Amino acid sequence: MATKSQVISLAGLAGASATLLLGLTWAPSVSIEAFEAPNAQRIFYWHVPSAWAAMLAFSFLFLGSSVWFFKRKEWGWRLHIASSEAGLATGLMCVWSGCIWGSAEWKVPWDWTDIRLNTFAMLTLLALFLILGRRGQPDGVESRDTFATFGMYGFVLVPLTYIATRLWQIRHPGPVIGTSEGSLNSDMFIVLMIGALSFTLLVIGHVLSSMHLAELEMRLEELQIQYEERIQ
Fold first, then answer.
1. Cβ-contact 118, 99 below 8 angstroms
2. Average pLDDT over all residues of the chain
3. Is residue 191 part of a domain?
4. Is there a domain that residue 178 lies in?
5. What band does 65 get if pLDDT is binned at 50, 70 and 90?
6. Is residue 175 part of a domain?
7. Highest mean pLDDT out of 19-28, 165-174, 190-199
8. Of 21, 56, 115, 190, which sees the most CB atoms within 10 A?
């Protein structure tokens, strides 16, 4: 019988698949005068929701890191683990789709002078560092505190990434929602909202499942330690 987290994840996956299909086949493309490669813009419906989901995952990472560091709650550490994994997955999705779009629109997959691209890449690398570092170090209070510190201080890149195009717009376009400058027609907005909701469900479902898995792993480690102590 499927758990709530599995149902949420499956709903998010179904919605993300529908978003990709609608973006490629139904949602209108932008004006050929506005973009060099208007058809490549269709990946926007995957790129933007995955970026939003990554920001959500890194917000969870900040919460989990703070709860562990200041309150020593086990659920905070499990949230740290789960959200770093979600942040890496959605961050890679965003980077991958952005490189495809950039290759078609800018003729280069990446522009190292663009602040927003680089701050988002640093966020994704932070998630990779936390995952690999945690697996390469024995679990303990000191190692947890170290990784939690990175999780908290790394969060500053989230608002910086969001406002980067407003302060230093180079190649990456500015926000199209929540601003007076940006606008979307109704068809584009519907598909984008389906994508945002779907990726939100994916992140929440993954975080819940991963937190449960981390709890089971910790219990197993405790049982192994107790068993080894008894047989000695």
1. no
2. 86
3. yes
4. yes
5. very high
6. yes
7. 190-199
8. 56
| Tally of domains in the chain | 1
In this structure, is the dihedral angle defined by the CA atoms of residues 125, 129, 135 and 140, taken in order, positive or negative? negative
Cα 19 off chain centre by:
17
pLDDT in tens, 108-133: 888 888 888 999 999 999 999 999 99
Task: Give me the half-sphere count of Cα atoms (radius 13 Å) on the Cβ side of residue 46.
Answer: 23
What's the confidence (pLDDT) of residue 138?
A: 85
- CA dist., res. 163 & res. 2, Å (int): 40
- Residue environment code for 64-78, b if the CB has 16+ CB neighbours within 10 A, otherwise e: bbbbbbeeeeeebbb
C-alpha 157/C-alpha 228 separation (Å) is: 44
- pLDDT at position 224 over 50: yes
pLDDT at 183: 56
Burial tier of 62 (Cβ tally within 10 Å: 0-12, 13-18, 19+): buried
Backbone φ/ψ region at 72: left (φ over 0), alpha (ψ -120 to 50), beta: left
Query: Cβ neighbours of residue 36 under 8 Å, at least 6 residues apart?
Result: 104, 105, 106, 107
Is 32 a domain residue?
A: no
38 is written with which tokens?
């208007």
pTM: 0.87
Q: Provide the pLDDT for residue 1.
A: 47
Tokens of 116: 């927003």
Angstrom distance (rounded) from CA 81 to CA 177: 31
Residue-number span of the structural domain to which 117 is assigned: 11-25+37-231
